[in-house]
Design goal:
heterodimer, A: alpha/beta, Rossmann fold, 7-stranded mixed sheet, 12 helices, globular, B: alpha/beta, 2 domains, disordered N terminus
Chain lengths: 327, 386
């Protein structure tokens, strides 16, 4: 059983998917010879050749637009956008074609493709390299949005996203890329898109997070259990869209309390949607208002102060303790 | 002088561009070449360049003529239906019949066609039924069902946004080593979109088998070509991208067929993309919601009436003794009957299906959308719609 980083696990999933299905192609800036700026596509050009690993010109909009065309032709492109901040260049083709062409063609042309992009803060980067704007894509009909939190689920979810018949936005928490290793099975592994995971069962309060935020969330949970005697249940959302309402509602119906964490801006963020669903489906079980610990509604700050902007375990602990004070 | 006549191929001279010295440090001059202009028929339908005249059997010439007449008759019928409230907003193609039919004529059904929305005549040629296009433009989603007979992409409304997708299809053909080509069209307005330039570049880098047809019809709603582009010879863009290009009189259907055949052969033969600039004129409205009197002079439109692509081709066919006035009248009558029959079928088919709006968004409806669909169906039930 190999111990892999997330980068290695993603690379493994790409290689496995390409070996299993010759329709799977990789495209993006510097993904070929260079193996991607984070090395996620390392070695794939050598293994699969230049017809299936396409170094593209530097134009995000047309990386997505041409990937859509390749999907129309029956291929399964995995398009890499070098940083999620640059997906704004591609907003046009994501919205106009990636998300809509199936519907516009009345399902004659299903767009089975993946847009991969590293997202989120914490790597001391320049402007536009730390954004967490998954809410844009969750708001876009026709897309699915998946965000793994560790090497093992990254490998399984990427395989599932490539196999999925619909277009998937796959955001990779780059702060986790090489942060830790995890055991990954020898044989290909997949996971169902649209399912959240209870990663720590508990009875007092439900703590919901995803992606890079799972590390401070789990750290906070340990602290709350060990130092404060609060039995926290932790849910890793994994799939932003579709969202596993059932698991969230079931959990909060048991605990009656909930805190949601994400690093993207608060206004119309994923937490707002989660809270709305819990309001609709678990209102009678709520013992306290649902709190959210999120990024602020400002531009992502320059990196000398990013550690203060990003939700950390301390801010999560404070929010949970406040929630527990409601009786 | 009207804006269009300044750049029209009516003046017929090849467009010369001079070698340009880039700056004082440049060690080489860069030859921007010259843009070839193709024209077979002049405005009177006389052959002016037999060297590029397509060698087509008589029956084919007549089929092309009928295609152009069908395009115009259908367009006129749609406009009448729109004015009577039976049709939604649409973009008439009046005056662009030669451009339209000429670009699809050399295609095989297995080739891929990715048109802009002002391509109704070409879509009919490619196998879309007229009643289906009526459904589409009357707001019935069933109209978007792609006909099985050819590889058709639906047009997209955002200007130029289909062009990278068409390029991606061509890249897919290249990856799969198939022998199909993609033909895509767009207007002079779309030539300003960054994504169109990006698509040129992608196609050139990958030598993708795609033919870009820019239908330079003079106007993007109210914006004339010279406010759209610093160089109104849009074929000249090919040089910058390393894409061979030709400028063609878009109102000369034989010129269009000559240019597009060459472009398609080039792409199919592995030569990569090709750019065809068809110089034509939007005789009618941008869309039925538009009033061109606000921004352009009648004189300009009148001048282009003399360049009518159908009249020109008629003169040519008459000179070859393939048509006479009686035959023209008969063909028009037959096609009008086809159009009316299509309109009648459309009226029978025009039943909205409000229950299906959730059905093509995903392969399988996610749970959260199943709930929303149930809520919507309840709403329909309350309103007594079904």
């Amino acid at each position: 059983m190999p111990q892999l980083t997330m980068v290695e696990a993603l690379n493994l999933a790409l290689g496995e998917s390409m070996a299993a299905d010759d329709r799977v192609c990789i495209m993006g800036e510097d993904v070929g010879v260079n193996g991607g700026v984070f090395r996620v596509t390392k070695g794939l050009l050598e293994r699969f050749g230049a017809d299936r690993v396409l170094d593209t010109p530097l134009a995000e909009d047309s990386i997505i637009g041409t990937a859509v065309g390749m999907a129309v032709y029956g291929l399964k492109p995995v398009a890499e956008i070098q940083f999620s901040g640059f997906t704004m260049q591609a907003f046009d083709q994501i919205e106009q074609n990636m998300a809509r062409l199936r519907n516009r063609s009345r399902s004659r042309y299903p767009i089975s493709m993946v847009m991969r992009a590293p997202y989120g803060g914490g790597i001391r980067a320049v402007e536009h390299h730390s954004e967490s704007r998954e809410a844009y894509w969750a708001h876009t009909p026709g897309l699915k949005v998946v965000i793994p939190s560790g090497p093992r689920n990254a490998r399984a979810l990427l395989a599932a996203s490539i196999a999925d018949p619909d277009p998937v936005v796959f955001y990779e928490p780059k702060a986790v890329y090489r942060a830790f290793r995890e055991e990954v099975s020898e044989s290909p592994e997949t996971m169902e898109i649209g399912k959240a995971q209870i990663v720590r069962p508990g009875g007092d309060v439900t703590l919901i997070g995803y992606g890079a935020m799972m590390r401070p969330v789990l750290e906070a949970a340990d602290d709350l259990v060990e130092e404060h005697g609060i039995d926290v249940e932790v849910i890793d959302l994994l799939s932003i869209k579709p969202m596993d309402t059932e698991t969230l509602v079931e959990s909060v119906s048991r605990t009656g309390r909930c805190v949601v964490v994400h690093e993207g801006p608060r206004m119309c963020g994923i937490a707002a949607e989660i809270i709305a669903r819990l309001n609709e489906h678990a209102f009678e079980y709520l013992l306290a208002p649902i709190r959210r610990v999120t990024g602020f509604d400002i531009h992502f700050p320059y990196f000398q102060v990013e550690k203060h902007y990003l939700p950390d375990s301390d801010s999560i602990v404070v929010a949970v303790k406040e929630t527990m004070q409601w009786t | 002088m009207s804006p269009r006549s300044a750049n029209s191929t009516a003046s017929a001279a090849p467009v010369e561009s001079r070698p340009v010295r880039v700056d004082s440090n440049a060690v080489e001059t860069i030859d921007l070449g010259r843009v070839e202009v193709i024209r077979v028929l002049d405005e009177k339908g006389r052959v002016v360049d037999a060297s590029v005249e397509p060698d087509l059997p008589d029956a084919e010439l007549l089929r092309i003529y009928r295609g152009m007449v069908r395009s115009r008759r259908f367009d006129q019928r749609m406009l009448a239906m729109q004015r009577q409230g039976e049709m939604g907003t649409f973009a008439p193609g009046l005056g662009q019949e030669a451009t339209q039919i000429g670009q699809v004529y050399p295609m095989r059904p297995s080739d891929w066609y990715s048109p802009s929305y002002r391509s109704i005549g070409a879509q009919v040629w490619r196998g879309w039924t007229m009643e289906q296009l009526l459904l589409l433009w009357a707001g019935y989603f069933e109209g978007f069902a792609i006909p099985e007979v050819a590889n058709e992409l639906p047009f997209s409304i955002v200007i130029g946004s289909h062009v990278p997708v068409a390029t991606g299809v061509a890249m897919g053909i290249k990856v799969r080593k198939d022998d199909a080509v993609v033909v895509t069209n767009f207007g002079d307005g779309a030539s300003s979109q960054g994504v169109v330039a990006e698509a040129f570049n992608f196609a050139a880098v990958y030598k993708a088998p795609i033919v870009f047809i820019v239908e330079s019809n003079g106007w993007a709603i109210s914006t004339p070509l010279e406010k759209q582009s610093g160089n109104t010879v849009l074929a000249a863009r090919g040089v910058g991208f390393g894409i061979p290009a030709v400028r063609v009189d878009g109102n000369d259907v034989l010129g269009m067929i000559a240019a597009c055949s060459r472009a398609i052969d080039h792409a199919r033969g592995g030569g990569g993309p090709y750019l065809v600039e068809a110089v034509t004129y939007r005789m009618s409205l941008h869309t039925t919601a538009d009033d061109p009197k606000v921004y352009r002079k009648d004189d300009e439109v009148k001048a282009w009436e003399g360049k009518c692509p159908i009249l020109r081709f008629e003169s040519y066919l008459k000179s070859r003794e393939l048509l006479d006035d009686d035959a023209i009248a008969q063909i028009n009558e037959e096609i009008e009957a086809e159009v009316i029959a299509a309109r009648d079928r459309f009226r029978e088919l025009a039943v909205a299906r409000p229950e299906e709006i959730f059905d093509f968004v995903y392969e399988q409806l996610p749970e959260e959308l199943r709930e929303q669909k149930a809520e919507y169906l309840e709403r329909l039930k309350r309103k007594g719609v079904q």
